[in-house]
Amino acid sequence: MTEQQIYERIKETRQSLGLSQKAISDKLGCSYQAWQGYEAGNNLPGGKILQKLNNLGVSVDWLLTGHGSLAEEAKSFNPDRMSYIPHVDARLAAGHGHINERMQILDYVPFTKEYLFKKLGRTGIDGLSILEVSGDSMEPTISDGNLVMIDQMETDVSGSIMAFVFEDCAYIKRLQKFLGGIDVVSDNKELYPPHQIANDELDQFHIIGRVRWIGKTI
Questions:
Q1: Between vectors from CA 138 to CA 132 and to CA 139, what angle results, nearest 5°?
Q2: Is the Cβ–Cβ distance between 132 and 92 less than 8 Å?
Q3: pLDDT for 122-132, tens place per residue?
Q4: Can you list the domains of the chain with their CATH numbers?
């Protein structure tokens, strides 16, 4: 599941109902600007909006995951099947380090519990958070402005894409242990060559968690 696909399905949902952006926002009880944001990829609808869409005959499973069809099992939606992962006001640098001076919850990104279990093996959301990425060092895998889900329960450095702090700056890179320390590798190697964090620098190094999901818009 990617954010891009969700936004595309949100627009398809409105079109299938034969409503303008203003009309559907009035019907759902949200602002016109909020619905524009859903279709533009600026934010995602919360539980109350999803429930109202379900009441209009839209399958929330399809809307969030792409599984099934738009109208399939629309009336079976249960808000208790949803998990809402906090989108935190913090950035991870895919490039030069980004200093996060404040951390607060901006909103929540909805996922079905079934999706989290099947795709991530998670039965709960403890330690999960959504953060924004800044920079192009992880292109084409992760682009500037993408959202990523971080699992703070997974801290093993084994070649995975990890969020970490080094010298008080937050980064997102591929990490791999070696005898003398940790290799730090960007996917955009032409502009950002690999470098290393030596063992004697590890007192300034802290793992935040592993990247488990990437949300993209185009």
A1: 105
A2: yes
A3: 888 889 999 88
A4: 3-77 (1.10.260.40), 83-215 (2.10.109.10)
